[in-house]
Design goal:
Elements lengths: L2 H8 L17 H56 L55
């Protein structure tokens, strides 16, 4: 083996025609890539801490608050039903409530009718006949 080949294998190769000087043994691209990876690791850790120590407790507090509000609402409805012999009081008979221009395909009540919370439209004493012809403007 010649002396030239031995020197090439043992000595580190340097770019001889580079206009940029190496940064502490690394080129600028690798230094930038390492800085980006370090920043990504720090940012990932920050958002993990925010998720665990801010978001999850906030969700728990909001869930407890909504639960308390719903329990108060349920207690109020039970109180109103107890005052009215187990039925909800009749809603006011305003003419703009329950306006029907044409019948629903599934019946007189809305699609999301709940008999425990809402009054049955037919039980209100109205026949709810639908007009024949064009609808009247509001």
């Amino acid at each position: 083996m010649s002396f030239r080949l031995l020197v090439r294998r043992t000595a580190p190769t340097l770019r001889r025609f580079s206009t940029e000087t190496p940064v502490a043994g690394k080129n600028a691209y690798l230094a930038n890539l390492e800085a980006v990876e370090h920043h990504a690791a720090e940012t990932t850790e920050l958002w993990r801490k925010i998720s665990h120590y801010v978001c999850l407790p906030a969700i728990a507090v909001c869930a407890a608050w909504v639960y308390n509000i719903e329990m108060e609402h349920k207690a109020h409805l039970e109180h109103e039903m107890a005052e009215n012999d187990g039925h909800l009081p009749a809603p006011p008979a305003y003419e703009y409530l329950n306006v029907r221009r044409k019948p629903f395909p599934w019946g007189p009540n809305s699609l999301f009718y709940n008999s425990e919370v809402r009054q049955n439209i037919l039980a209100l004493g109205s026949s709810f006949t639908f007009p024949i012809g064009p609808a009247k403007p509001l």
